[in-house]
Write a structure and sequence with these properties.
The complex is a heterodimer of chains A (279) and B (424). Chain A contains eleven helices and one strand. Chain A is mainly α and 279 residues long. Chain A has one domain. In chain A, α3 crosses α4, α4 crosses α10 and α7 packs parallel to α11. The longest helix of chain A has 32 residues. Chain A starts with 11 loop residues before the first strand and ends with a helix. In chain B, the strands form four sheets. Chain B has a six-stranded mixed sheet, sandwiched between helices. In chain B, strands 13, 14, 15, 17 and 18 form a five-stranded antiparallel sheet that branches. Chain B has a four-stranded antiparallel sheet with strand order 11-10-12-16. Chain B is built from eight helices and 18 strands. Chain B has three domains: 35 residues, no CATH class; 200 residues, P-loop containing nucleotide triphosphate hydrolases (Rossmann fold); 129 residues, abc- transporter (atp binding component) like domain (Coagulation Factor XIII, Chain A, domain 1), CATH 2.70.50. In chain B, 38% of the residues are buried. Chain B is globular and about 80 Å long. The chains are: A mainly alpha (279), B alpha+beta (424). The interface between A and B is large, with 39 and 51 residues.
């Protein structure tokens, strides 16, 4: 039987929209079951028909770590403020693996979901947010690797660990913010897909992943700190290794991340009425 | 009318698209290189222009223009029209998939729209997982899917494979599973695009049954279909869209007949005077042969099961008597399906000099879906007056012969007969 409709319920109005909107949390909450299932689908099919399954989540950063250690430690002898290179790089490579994958997938989410986009309505923001959440599983698994390395080097936990949830949130909002911008652009200009590999590579070298932020000359530090990825990487270092918290990187990075996220969400929702028409 | 009785209110909705992304063709290597260099700038302008409409309007297509209508609560309305008439665009706007360019619509009640079955199905997921995913994509809550789960699996008939990844399913199984999920939606307002045209005949019948159940439940339904039989059967009202505008709106049967009558004519059956192959001595010449409905409108696609008149117009050079008119309907295999002869009425006709017509009424057209030709002839005591082997070609695309919607395909039948079954 049909549930009797509440006669006072306000009708849904459909018309050309032109306003700038921030995220409609009410609509997202209404579709939360779908949201959960899409995230779960992404997780479930991520390593479908692979032999190693979720081991890939550990294997990818491990291989990268080995390569970096060989090149930047043994060959190039990059200074690391006295921290063993493996330890120094692993606290950066693991969040970076998350960032790069979440960003890439988020930026492709609309193009990949175009079949669904044209056939069913749900808040479009769900598309770029889904990979940002789904990739957390990989991140969680690879954190195990990080913990193993930390234990191996006998680093004692400090109060800095309390920063972890905050850094997690920061890392997610950067991925989502970039995902909002790029997915909305990618549906119109498919160039984004081709540019992405190289943008990710550039971003990697722009952040202190293989080298130390302290090797950046003092006078460029302010510009450098505007890169939100710097704040995440340096933040994780302090968080896990107990070095002093680099607020001079975290605060500007955080501000940029917030602007990126809010601006991206607004741009995305501004463009969303055209998505279907340009697929 | 109380505005609370209106479930869908559409006011002056228009939608325009840009269609003009045309490719330039260069004719020399130099031109190609120059094109290659400047193409990024051109492409940028081109793709950016997809969002803008202010410049030249040569490549703008109005998919919908000032469309207004109301759907009352509990009413089942069909939308019919040729491809490109704007049906799908209208449904996409009402489903919130795309925004209208101007105008507005108000929808009162929980809507589900089904523009496709199996949206979001993932080949790596099992049948069970896809039921939940697809159900939530279509707007169900998780617990609603849980409640309906057994019914859905039962309806789909794939219970043995429910824990197998969908990529191992046959296409038929996939469609059945997808439709099973869709069929168990229970919104107050249901918007459906041509989704019944899936699966085998048997499964289609099951789907139509489910649809009929929905309509009888008092649900408001907006239904786009090319299956005219289904429109007549399920809808009380229909809207004809033509070039993005409403051409007519009214009771579904009338609308379907009107729509079918506007479709293309195959042969020049309205001017048989110049028919290339004919025989007879020419004292009488057929001028036209066509179908008409009971209210006298010409139709080009008669509906099986409906009453039709076949009208033969002629011109006779002299007064004639004892004329025998015959018409034979052949199917596409060249088999004569039936022969209608004025003798079966027990009489021959007299016609005076001049124009006249003779009408053959078939109370319940017994033809399966397919295409047909009509050959006509007239003779008197002296000899053959006129005979046109192909006077009229027609299609039957819609059948309402058996009220159950099931129509045997042509390969199993050449004619339909009324019958009933019982267990005894």
């Amino acid at each position: 039987m049909i549930k009797r409709m509440n006669q006072n319920e306000s009708p849904m109005i459909i018309k050309a929209s032109s306003k700038w909107n921030f995220i409609d949390f009410k609509a997202l909450a209404e579709y939360r079951d779908l949201f959960i299932f899409l995230v779960w689908r992404d997780i479930k099919v991520m390593y479908a028909q692979t032999i190693l399954g979720f081991s890939w989540a550990v294997l990818q950063p491990t291989i990268q770590l080995v390569v970096f250690t060989v090149i930047f430690d043994r060959v190039a002898k990059v200074p690391t403020d006295g921290i063993p290179y493996v330890l120094f790089a692993s606290v950066a490579v693991i969040p970076w693996t998350y960032l790069s994958q979440a960003m890439t997938q988020s930026s492709q989410s609309l193009v990949q979901g175009q079949g669904m986009l044209g056939k069913v309505y749900f808040p479009r923001l769900i598309f770029p947010i889904t990979p940002v959440l789904a990739k957390l599983v990989d991140f969680g698994i690879s954190i195990m690797l990080l913990i193993a390395i930390i234990i191996y080097y006998r680093v004692m936990p400090t109060w800095n660990l309390l920063l972890f949830p905050f850094l997690l949130l920061l890392m997610m909002s950067i991925s989502a913010g970039i995902g909002f911008w790029l997915s909305a652009l990618a549906i119109r200009y498919r160039d984004v897909k081709h540019a992405m590999t190289f943008v990710v590579r550039m971003l990697m070298y722009s952040a202190p992943i293989v080298y130390s932020a302290s090797s950046i000359p003092e006078k460029y530090r302010i510009i450098y700190s505007l890169n939100p990825i710097v704040s995440v990487i340096e933040g994780y270092r302090a968080c896990f290794l107990g070095t002093p918290i680099p607020w001079q990187f975290i605060l500007p990075g955080m501000a940029v991340a917030v602007i990126l996220f809010i601006g991206g969400a607004m741009y995305f929702q501004r463009m969303e009425r055209f998505f279907v028409d340009v697929i | 009318m109380n505005s609370k009785d209106i479930a869908i209110k559409v006011e002056n909705i228009s939608k325009r698209y840009r269609i003009g992304i045309k490719e330039d063709i260069h004719d020399s290597i130099g031109g190609a290189i120059f094109d290659f260099i400047k193409s990024p700038f051109k492409n940028f302008k081109k793709y950016r222009s997809l969002y803008k409409f202010d410049d030249d309007s040569s490549d703008i297509l109005w998919a919908l223009k000032n469309v207004s209508f109301n759907v009352k609560r509990g009413e089942v309305t069909g939308i019919i029209g040729r491809n490109g008439a704007g049906k799908s665009t209208l449904l996409k706007i009402l489903s919130r998939i795309t925004d209208p360019t101007s105008g507005s619509a108000e929808i009162r009640g929980k809507v589900s729209s089904l523009l496709e079955v199996g949206t979001g199905f993932h080949p790596e997921l099992t049948g069970r997982e896809n039921i939940f995913l697809n159900g939530t994509i279509l707007g169900m809550r998780k617990r609603e899917v849980e409640k309906k789960y057994d019914e859905i699996v039962d309806f789909s008939g794939v219970i043995k494979f429910i824990d197998t990844p969908v990529k191992r399913y046959s296409s038929g199984m996939k469609v059945r599973l997808a439709f099973a999920v869709a069929a168990h939606l229970e919104p107050e307002i249901l918007i459906i695009d041509e989704v019944l045209a899936v699966g085998d005949a048997d499964f289609q019948r099951k789907c139509l049954g489910k649809m009929r159940y929905h309509t009888q439940e008092g649900r408001t339904v907006l239904f786009v279909s090319h299956n005219m039989g289904a429109v007549i059967d399920l809808c009380s009202r229909a809207i004809i869209l033509k070039n993005g505008q409403i051409a007519a709106e009214g009771p579904s049967r009338e609308m379907v007949e009107q729509y079918l009558s506007t479709l293309f004519v195959h042969v020049d059956n309205m001017n048989l005077r110049d028919a290339p192959t004919r025989s007879g001595d020419g004292r009488l010449r057929f001028a036209a042969a066509y179908f008409q409905s009971q209210d006298g409108n010409r139709i080009n696609m008669p509906i099986a099961g409906h009453p039709v008149d076949i009208v033969l117009e002629f011109e006779s050079k002299e007064d004639l008597s004892n004329i025998q008119f015959v018409l034979t309907i052949f199917n596409q295999m060249g088999i004569a399906v039936t022969h209608c002869n004025v003798r079966t009425n027990g009489q021959l006709y007299q016609v005076p000099k001049g124009e006249g017509k003779v009408i053959c009424n078939i109370p319940k057209l017994p033809l399966p879906l397919g295409n047909y030709k009509v050959s006509i002839a007239a003779s008197d005591n002296i000899g053959n007056l006129d005979a046109v082997p192909t006077a009229c070609i027609f299609d039957i695309e819609t059948s309402n012969f058996y009220k159950t919607q099931f129509t045997p395909p042509m390969r199993f039948s050449t004619a339909l007969v009324d019958h009933s079954w019982r267990i005894g």
